[in-house]
Amino acid sequence: MVGLLLVGLGGLLALVLVVLVRVSLVLRAGSRLQQQRRRRRSTDTGSVSVSVLVVAGSGGHTSEMLRLMDSLSPSYSPRHYVIADTDRMSEDKICSSERSRRQENSEDQFFIHRIPRSREVLQSWSSSIFSTLRALRFSIPLVFRLRPDVVLCNGPGTCVPLCVAALLLGILGMKKVVLVYVESICRVQNLSLTGKILYPITDYFFVQWACLRDKYPRSIFLGRIV
Question: What subcellular locations does the record give (predicted)?
Fold first, then answer.
């Protein structure tokens, strides 16, 4: 166990060094992206587009997330969907949903990005430490390059490294990213593991059952929203 912790700590320190090296490159890329965002602002209506990074998971997570996205206004654009590199179904669902949105607003933009999965089904907890660190290594450059205004997620393990990367963006003073977590409708009595991890750091934490609101006072209960 001690050996695993030392290896994990060594990997984390190596990751920090990689981040420091990449910060200067990210700052340059981010400034160009910020200029592009300013040009997207609509001076005629006074509205401002909100760039959102959406974390999609396999199966039910993606279905719930797409139902939630259907309720958002067109001002949430561009939409950057992030899926695990081993996820073979979510991309088709996302493209189908976005085609429906395009019929209503042809100016909507969406993109799909892939990162390594943090934890596979039935993967051991000890090995998931290393797979999560690997996912974080890919998440940091992606989030720093996109600089979303909002990160929206609902439970897949992939959202943990992405939220950590967004939090790091704010810690470095580069941009404050709003973290929004919507717990899955199937979580009635207890939060998911991902929910427990992200509960302390999210800006808005939504639950869909009143008993969860009673257990977690920082959470927001609006009834069923997906």
Answer: Endoplasmic reticulum membrane
Residue 1 token pair: 């166990």
Per-residue pLDDT of 24-35, as tens digits, reads 444 444 444 454
CATH numbers and ranges of domains, the chain:
2-32+50-221 (3.40.50.2000)
pTM of the prediction? 0.77
Q: How far apart are CA 94 and CA 9, in angstroms?
A: 37
Do residues 109 and 77 touch, judged by C-beta distance below 8 A? yes
The residues near 45 (Cβ < 8 Å, ≥ 6 apart) are: none
Q: What is the arithmetic mean of pLDDT over 81-92?
A: 89
Of the listed ranges 82-86, 155-159, 197-201, 208-212, the least confidently predicted one is 155-159
| Locus of tokens 């996912």 | 135
The predicted-structure confidence for 43-53, as pLDDT tens digits, reads as follows 444 567 899 99
Phi then psi dihedrals of residue 210, to 5 deg = -65, -35
How far, in whole angstroms, is CA 77 from its chain's centroid?
A: 15
